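Work package 3, deliverable 3.1, input record:
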Amino acid sequence: MPGRNGKGPPWWHGKFRGCGYRLTIPRETIIEVLSKAAKHLSAEEIYLAVHKVYPAIGLTTIYRTLELLVQIGLVFKFDFGDGRARYELAEGPKGIRQHHHLVCTNCGRVIDYTDFIDEAKEFLSQTMKALNKKCNFKITNHLIQFYGLCEKCQK
Amino acid sequence: MPGRNGKGPPWWHGKFRGCGYRLTIPRETIIEVLSKAAKHLSAEEIYLAVHKVYPAIGLTTIYRTLELLVQIGLVFKFDFGDGRARYELAEGPKGIRQHHHLVCTNCGRVIDYTDFIDEAKEFLSQTMKALNKKCNFKITNHLIQFYGLCEKCQK
DNA sequence: ACTGGGAATGAAAACCATTACCATTAGGAG
DNA sequence: CTCCTAATGGTAATGGTTTTCATTCCCAGT
Ligand SMILES: [Mn+2]
Ligand SMILES: [Mn+2]
Ligand SMILES: [Zn+2]
Ligand SMILES: [Zn+2]
């Protein structure tokens, strides 16, 4: 069930068509790379990974496609403070994988943290409602990051 | 009580001396500018403001000083997605002003939001404790930002 | 299946915030 | 007041991202 159901098209094709965007090899490959990524990739890392299977790719297309994917909500863009943007698939076939990030200020390591999501959800939903009423601000997204020292860097 | 008590030195001089840093006109002026800033300033905006009262200032010094101020915890550095870093005084003579940010994804406006801090504190303290134990991650700082549409951009 | 038009691409150059370099200045301990 | 060295500032370099523009190719309409 992950990716493609038998021979059916990947689950995200509909999202593309719905927005009037064309399906191209670069776009397919970039999403493919992102879906297999173990960690948060930079544009250049994505470029290198795509280049292995599709050498004609250009770095420009990587940037343009990532911007597009962020726009339609398929990809999240992060700044972990290392001078380059990091990208991560927002949702897979299994749905949205809700999580936040721990960033080590010493070695730069980034750790996904999926625990305590319930507390976060509670806090977030309350805050969103309140902000909507008080500030008349329509919240569509949020960012929570923790900074500190990872296990190795504490010694 | 704000800034200087009568003729006494500014409240942050101690922090500088304690770290072994020298007190210079550029540093004094940069903090001065930040303490009077109505909003979140970029390095260039700070440069222009300092330049008015101290024309000999160099942009390099702005960056170096801001890095220093961030390091000693006097200044917070933010990325609101407009391609340049934004800086904000972390604490004033009245103490730390705890708040988070609402970022309009359409016009880029950034709104300070100080309400619901209690809920945030509760959520944060719980999460920090848990992360400390479960992940062995020593949290020293955190970032919470909400993205959406401001009042004007909703129409 | 074919074709036309416009979206998408890629190579190269431009952009621009930030950093490195280095000769000069000046804070402040003694 | 002197000296040592941190701090400064002008300039050049860096490097991630964007712009430009000629070429390619997706795909709706036939
Ligand atoms: Mn993640
Ligand atoms: Mn603020
Ligand atoms: Zn670490
Ligand atoms: Zn707005």
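Chain A has two domains: 1-90, 98-155.
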